[in-house]
Amino acid sequence: MKEQLEKDQIIHLSGTDNTRDLGGLQTSDHRIVRSKKLIRSDHLNRLTEKDCRILSEQYRVMTIVDLRRDSESARQPDQVPSGAKLVHDPLVPELKQAQTFAKINSVGKLMLESVHHMDDDVLTYQSKRYAEAALSDFTAVAIQKWIEILLEAEDGAVLWHCTAGKDRTGVLAALILLILGVPMHAVKANYLMTNQWIHAKIQWILSKTREITNDLNLLRQVELLCSVHENYFEAVISTIDSHYGGLSAYIHQHLHISDEMIDTLRNMYLIPRR
Q1: How many other C-beta atoms can be found within 10 angstroms of the C-beta atom of residue 60?
Q2: What is the mean pLDDT of the chain?
Q3: What's the CA gap between 113 and 222, in Å, rounded?
Q4: Of 178, 139, 165, whose CA–CA distance to 269 is shortest?
Q5: Boundaries of each Tyrosine specific protein phosphatases domain copy (predicted)?
Q6: How far apart are alpha carbons 112 and 127 in whole angstroms?
Q7: Is residue 109 a contact partner of residue 82, using CB atoms and an 8 Å limit?
Q8: Strands 61-66 and 270-272
C-alpha cells in the first residue's frame, strides 16, 4: 500500500525529475491530504507543451512559487502552464559565488566547484546550512509569503519548486505536512523519497563528473550534494527543538502562523478518511 501511494504521488513529466503530489498522506487524526492541491517539483525550465497541459488540465495548477535565487531563475526561467500565475519567493539569500557559478557550463565542473565551496565536506556543510535556514529571518519571511499563497488558493493547485526540488522544496513540503498533522516519520519518509525518484539523474551527474575526476571521495561528495540525507532533516528538527522547545512554538513564534491559520489550512487541504 505504501509503495502504491508513492507511485500515485509522482507526476510523470518529460521535463522534470521530481514532481510529486502530496495528496494521499494520512494525518495523525486519520484525515487525508487532498490530491491535486499541493505539488512539489524541481525547476520548470524544461517543461514540454504536453507537460504544461498535464499541469494545467489534469492538476489545475493555478499558482507556481519559484523558491530559487534571482540568479537561478534568470539562468533557467520557468515555462509557465496556461492559466497559472508565477510568484518569485526566494527561500534563501543570493550566493556571493553566484556569478562565478553562472559562468560554469560543464555539469561536472559545476558540481566539483560546489563541493570545493563546501570544503569538500557536503554532509557537514549542508547540515549546518539547513540549521541556519531554519532560524533565518530572511527564510521566515519567504515562508510566510508562501503560507499566505496557500491560504488564498481556494481554486486549483499550488506548485512550489527550487532547482532540484529536494532541499528548499523538500523543507517546505515537510513543513506543510507537519502543519497539517502528518506524523513525523511519514514526513521524513516523503522527504527522503527524493533519492528514489532522482536516482537516474544523480547517476548521470556522476558520469559527467567522472569525465573530470576519478577521486572517490570527491565523487562521493558530489553524490551527497545531489541527494537528500536524513542528517539534513534531523538538523532542522534538532535546531527547532533546541531554540524553541518544539515545532508548535517555532511555527507560532518564528513563522508567525496562528492557530486560526493552521485550522484554515487543515480545512482547505484535508479530507476525512473514507
Answers
A1: 15
A2: 94
A3: 10
A4: 178
A5: 144-178
A6: 19
A7: no
A8: unpaired
Q: Is 120 helix (H, G, I), strand (E, B) or coil?
A: coil
* C-alpha span between 119 and 184 (Å, rounded): 31
The H-or-E segment that residue 103 falls in is none
Q: Is the pLDDT of residue 21 over 80?
A: yes
User: Tell me, what CATH number does 248's domain have?
Assistant: 3.90.190.10
Q: Label residues 198-229 b or e (16+ Cβ within 10 Å = b).
A: beeebeebbebbeeeeeeeebbebbbbbbbbb
Concatenated DSSP letters of 153-214: --SSEEEEE-SSSSSHHHHHHHHHHHHHT--HHHHHHHHHTHHHHTHHHHHHHHHHHHTT--
For 217-228, the pLDDT digits (tens) are 999 999 999 999
User: Of the candidates 242, 270, 244, 267, which has an alpha carbon nearest to the alpha carbon of residue 256?
Assistant: 244
Model confidence at 102, pLDDT cuts 50, 70, 90, reads low
Cell 533565518 belongs to 136
Number of separate domains in the chain:
1
117 vs 236, higher pLDDT = 236
Residue 62 binned pLDDT confidence (cut-offs 50, 70, 90)? very high
Closest by CA to 162, choosing from 146, 178, 151, 148, is 146
**For 84-98, what is the mean pLDDT?**
89
Length of the chain: 274
User: What is the longest distance spanned by two Cα atoms in the chain?
Assistant: 55
DSSP character for 77?
P
Q: Which residues of 134-164 are buried (b: 16+ CB within 10 A; e: fewer)?
A: bebeebbebbbebbebbeebeebbbbbbbbb
